[in-house]
Amino acid sequence: xxxxxxxxxxxxxxxxxxxxxxxxxxxxxxxxxxxxxxxxxxxxxxxxxxxxxxxxxxxxxxxxxxxxxxxxxxxxxxxxxxxxxxxxxxxxxxx
Length: 95
Known about the structure:
The chain is mainly alpha-helical. Helices cover about 50% and strands about 10% of the residues. It is built from 4 helices and 3 strands; from the N terminus they run E-H-E-H-H-E-H. The longest helix has 16 residues, at about 25-40. It is globular. The model has no long low-confidence stretch (mean pLDDT about 95).
């Protein structure tokens, strides 16, 4: 699962997060925590597909869960570490 990636974070330079994840709430929550960990370890992350859905869901949530709040805060504090690759629909969701 998503949690199995955690030990790899310090060993890799960049991560692609999103394609094939699906939208199960537990997976989305774990993925948000993983992206926060990636950014905290000064690694780069590319958000695509379901990774962008996780981000847009966090941005739109009121109130936000703790992991959504941490995700938004991490991205705002280190935007140079995050690359987003939205298509038109994903871009509109992010706006």
